[in-house]
Amino acid sequence: MTMGAAGPELKPSKFDGKGDPEAVPRWVEELEKTFEVLGCIEAEKVTLAVYQLQDNASDWWKATRGRVFPEGVAQIWAVFFENFYGKFFSESARERKLVEFMILHQGQMTVDQYEAEFTRPSKFAPRMVEHPEDKARRFRDGLKADIHTQLISVNLRTYEDLYERA
User: Which of 96, 138, 140, 155 has its CA 20 to 30 A from that of 121?
Assistant: First the structure.
């Protein structure tokens, strides 16, 4: 594993499975940043994630891992992630994130702030943003009326072009 070279600044937080389900996506995001920096392969991602589990979360994994990765089955991050989310990020918490995304509008935020707020919950609404034109339209529709109106006439089709122009 390439993890030994990591400096003290690369310490993803532990996860105990207690408390706020909103902490789940933040923890996963932090882990994924660490994976990228360390250049982890699939099995290392799962190993690192499991190493960070404590208390309830660790007990859950001990009871679940044989079903998720039976003997001889490769450990794949996406499979771990799906099972982990199923357990610790409930359907109702995901629904709240979806609603949050659907009602998001720029309001008093700058375009950059709005873009950051748009990006975060968009992962919980993948069907609403999987097609580039749908993502661009949803972003445009949440902008302030004056910016939105100017962008409709330009007819930009990509999210990146819309963001840049806004």
Answer: 155
